[in-house]
Amino acid sequence: MANLARTDSVFDRLFDFRRDFDNLFSGILTDASQRGRRVESLVFSVPPIEAWVDPNDKKYHLSVALAGVNPQEVQLNLQGNTLTVSGEHKSGDEKKDANYLQREFSYEQFERIIQLPEAIDTQKLTAQYNNGVLEIVAPIRAEALPKQIEIKNLPAASSSQGSNQQSATQGSSTKAAAASS
Fold first, then answer.
1. CA separation (Å) from 85 to 89, 129, 150?
2. In sequence order, which residues have a C-beta less than 8 Å from that of residue 83 and are 6 or more positions away?
């Protein structure tokens, strides 16, 4: 007779797994205030950068995204070729009577350590803050710029003359060896 009792099959366990996964995922999404705080703190703890060299201007450019940060809250420190951009973005107006539905603004410390290329002149480093972007510029040192080296061509006569002299020297040493024996 067929067994009519229900057993725990592989399919049932897969559906249980999916239900547990859905519950976990929806729990993360519904906790928007915590999720926003985590995402925003990642952005502010290590600000994104963009670095490039302008070959026409012969300058190194570094942009650091610091949206919403006051320039007085930013410190730049240079030691050797290591540039540290750091600071603390402080809270502005906190509304004590407001019932926040979602709050994703973050007011935390941030720091980014950038190893500058050896080719730049760190003594002439400049920094400007414009529309939430810190722009750092430094010229490339003259000795680090590519140089074209001229290839000199030896005249054909001098190279053939050198081989004639070498064979003449070899011939005279052979004659001297024969004469001494």
1. 13, 12, 43
2. 62, 76, 77, 113, 114, 115, 116, 125, 136
Q: In angstroms, rounded to a whole number, what is the distance separating the alpha carbons of residues 136 and 151?
A: 38
Q: Read out DSSP for 27-83?
A: HHHH-HHHHHHHHHHHHHHS--EEEEEETTTTEEEEEEE-TT--GGGEEEEEETTEE
CATH architecture of residue range(s) 48-93+104-147: Sandwich (2.60)
Which residues are paired to 62 by β-bridges? 51, 136
Query: Could you tell me the residue ranges of all domains in the chain?
Result: 48-93+104-147
> What is the pLDDT tens value at each position of the chain, 181 positions in all?
555 555 556 556 656 666 666 666 666 655 544 444 444 444 447 889 999 999 899 999 999 999 888 899 999 999 999 999 999 877 656 677 778 787 766 667 889 999 999 999 999 999 999 999 999 999 998 888 778 899 999 888 655 555 555 554 555 444 544 444 4
pLDDT at 101: 80
Sort residue 45 into left (φ over 0), alpha (ψ -120 to 50) or beta: alpha
Nearest to 58 by CA among 130, 117, 133, 127: 117
The one-letter code for the residue type at 45 is: S
